[in-house]
From TrEMBL:
Pfam families: ABC_tran. Coiled coil: none annotated. This is ABC transporter ATP-binding protein. Gene3D superfamilies: P-loop containing nucleotide triphosphate hydrolases. Residues 5-238 form the ABC transporter domain. GO terms for molecular function: ATP binding; ATP hydrolysis activity. It comes from Chitinophaga eiseniae. Keywords: ATP-binding, Nucleotide-binding. InterPro entries: AAA+_ATPase (IPR003593), ABC_transporter-like_ATP-bd (IPR003439), ABC_transporter-like_CS (IPR017871), P-loop_NTPase (IPR027417).
Amino acid sequence: MNKIIIVDDLVKEYGSKTVVRNISFNITSGSIYGLLGANGAGKTTVIKMIIGLVQPTSGSIYIDGINAKLGKNNGTDFKSKIGYMGQQFNLYNQLTVRQNLMLHAGCHYIGRRNGNIRIEELITDFQLSDIIDVSTAKLSAGQQQKIAFACSIIHRPKIVVVDEPTNQSDQNSKRIFWEQITSLSKQSGITFLVTTHNLFEAEYCNYISIMDGGIIKEAGTPSGIKSKYNADSLTEAFRRIVKNNK
Ligand SMILES: Nc1ncnc2c1ncn2[C@@H]1O[C@H](COP(=O)(O)OP(=O)(O)OP(=O)(O)O)[C@@H](O)[C@H]1O
């Protein structure tokens, strides 16, 4: 299986505080990989290092065969491979949904004509026809999350990194989001790296790592982890993993 993300012995220190401690993992192309953990476990720091927003103290990251440290300098369009949706949505609330999508298309050097074609596809895929010309300021949190996600995939990235994607969504929007990424991973072969502290939603992942205190304490498929810890749910397994290691 092709490993599209390879993280090796990654460390992040802020002053004297070590927030990510020698973590290593690989992500198989086309899979949904969940990075789980409580608040402050280090999940956001890991993904910010992967997308190049934060510089690691040590260790290496390879994205689709490219050393992430050299990604900006080796002539490869590194950023075109990755879509990112952070906890703060990258939306301009004075703009409409269409204008936000076009703005993100422009950031990825997609011209107006191709941008319009891609926006039409996203209107269909995300059922946006009723809100496409509405200002994002007037949308609900769940709708804003949907638009932020559409913006993150406008350039058809191979990898999409999403940080706590459903924090502000209702149950129905959560379900729709997870079904959408499951279908994108299966049909378009997109690889997803998703951080969450929602253990019910983590069941949608093909593979998960459980982080605590900056280290990965357990990793495996959701069913493999449940069976290893003799637990009926990931919530129960999570409690045992974190308790076992304290
Ligand atoms: N720029 C920074 N300077 C100093 N410490 C930081 C910085 N960014 C994060 N931290 C610390 O690193 C630790 C891990 O934070 P991080 O945001 O990665 O956790 P998380 O698992 O994503 O939590 P959450 O679910 O709340 O987003 C926390 O103790 C946080 O205070």
